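Box 3.1 A note on notation
Throughout this textbook, protein chains are presented in two layers. The first layer is the amino acid sequence; the second is a token string describing backbone geometry. Keep the layers aligned when reading.
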Amino acid sequence: MTTYFGKVRNILIAILFINFLVAMSKIFYGYYTDTLSIQADGYHSLSDGIANIVGIIGIQIASKPPDKDHPYGHKKYENLASIVVAMMLVFISLTIIHGAYERFVTGAIPTITSISFLVMLIAMTISIIISVYELKKGKELNSEFLLADSVHTRSDVYSSVAVILGLGVIYAGYPLIDPIIAIIIAILIINAAYNIIRQNSESLCDASKLDNRSIKCLAELVDGVEDCHNVRTRGFSNDVHVDLHVTVSPALRTDEAHEIANEVENMLETSFQEVTDVVVHVEPELSTKGTKKEK
């Protein structure tokens, strides 16, 4: 698990400087040309860098081993870091909408040149590379934060496309499109925040991570298991905890029942690579007669 956190942290550090460079380029040029849509896209990119910083801090805390006060570890701090990123996205989107409203009121006309298009094309290309890289590494490492951050970065790509199209319309003589594009970007940012909150809230609320029926079928393949019920799973995509009840013959000795429980545990950990902890509750078969067993 330490190796996992180290890899994620190194990836975020590498991406951090690139995101800040892209963000500051767009923000500076947006203010220089008084182009609200480029400014908004720059702040969107800046939130990528801020997200990286939050992620690094969250990953550092999450990497701590279990202790007396946190017997299940600190990994939920990674989810909390993702939620903080989402909250920042909402704040940035509201700032952009406020700026768009002021532009409607003032009617200022931005300055569009060929450099405007070049800046946005280069920035969009970099964002595409980062998003694809984060998505690939997120899947390889089963990192919920990297996957969430790749969604964030991908929304930056969409907003850059909208800005580039908007620049063409502005250049053609329709400056009103500038604040409209900014509002569209704000909506994209809010949508990205929603997706991040939805994905991470499942782990924070201990949503089921595996198919209970598959676990039940596998457990019942173990010799000596009469029935499997009360299956529960929780955790993260790369750290799933399972607990379940199995019934065995009451004629078995304690050590024999314990051996069956060990076999069930090994069966599940072998079948599901993401499973890191299994708790098997052994019950004598007679104790379940006359009752309805939970599937």
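The helical segments are 2-33, 36-62, 76-106, 114-141, 144-171, 177-204, 212-219, 254-271. The CA atoms of residues 247 and 287 lie 8 Å apart.
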